[in-house]
Design brief:
This is G-protein coupled receptors family 1 profile domain-containing protein. Keywords: Membrane, Transmembrane, Transmembrane helix. This protein has 343 residues and is mainly alpha-helical. The chain has a domain of 234 residues. It is 69% helix and 0% strand. The chain contains twelve helices and no strands. The longest helix has 35 residues.
Length: 343
Amino acid sequence: MLNSLPSSAEASFSPARSPLLPARISLSVWFISYTILISDVWTCRWSLGLLLFYLNRYLPVLDLFLFLHRTACYRRSHNLSMFVLSVAFILVLANMLTMILAIIVLRTYAIWGRRRLILWILTPIAVILFGSMLGITAWKTSVDYHEMRSFTPASSMSDRQKCTIAALAIDKKRRIALLGLYVMVFLGEAAIVVLTIIKANQHISKISPRWVSQLYKNGIIYCICMLGLSLVNACVLFAAPVSNSPSYLPFATPVNDYQQSQYKPIVLPAQRSLHSMFSNRVILLIFQNRKRNAPENNEDNRPRPNTYAESAMDVFTSVYPEPIETGTDETSWQARAQMEWVH
């Protein structure tokens, strides 16, 4: 009985089951924040920014579902596996776009009052991060597809076995590519952390509402958590333990190379899910504060000055310019940025 404990523990922490906990947490957060979503978010005017908020809220759960389908579903055809692989590629890209560009970059740009210097800093970060994610995700999807197609019809493995092996396989080339991606994400998030701390020091040192200080503190904690997860993902690619048995697969397979990579992607589902939950929680807090500060004014009926230009960044803004404001658009955005937060 004692001898069976290591194998049982190994199976419990296998990558085929690693998305289960993030999926449960995501569903729990869904139900907990549902009343806030109805009262404070559904009343907002539709914009591109609000659409990105919804995508960032729901796409990670679909991504986790597709990952589970590829690794733990017991009955699937080869054509269905190909379809799931293609859909997963699209959803992962959309998820990356909303997390990196919409939540992180746009919020940082908003808090700094749309300064040109910050634009020059954030634009290369966004282009490099999204470009690398696009290239590596497309390459990984292509490799998985050809890996599944490479199995001969006479192979003793079922379609489910082929799909699961392709989903969990991380050989040397894939490991190096993923390491490069994690390093770039780590550096980009580190730059965001620096900009957050600088602006937090400027805002908190002055007289600021309590919720602004709390959001900055929570945001810095969020940034540190994301930095830690990126660093853990990079380390796990090389330091993850190697199993002597294929217990991470629900079947026996002679492919030893894939047995050695069983723990390599085990933290990735958690990172995707936590990215979405942390960033969306902060935006929900901003929506709550906006509703609390203007209980009798609906956003749709709120007057705006002539200098105000509607933008997708509205969803990342906690206060609107007052009707008495005059001056340039830059001044208006700087006034709004005094109550802004980066994530």
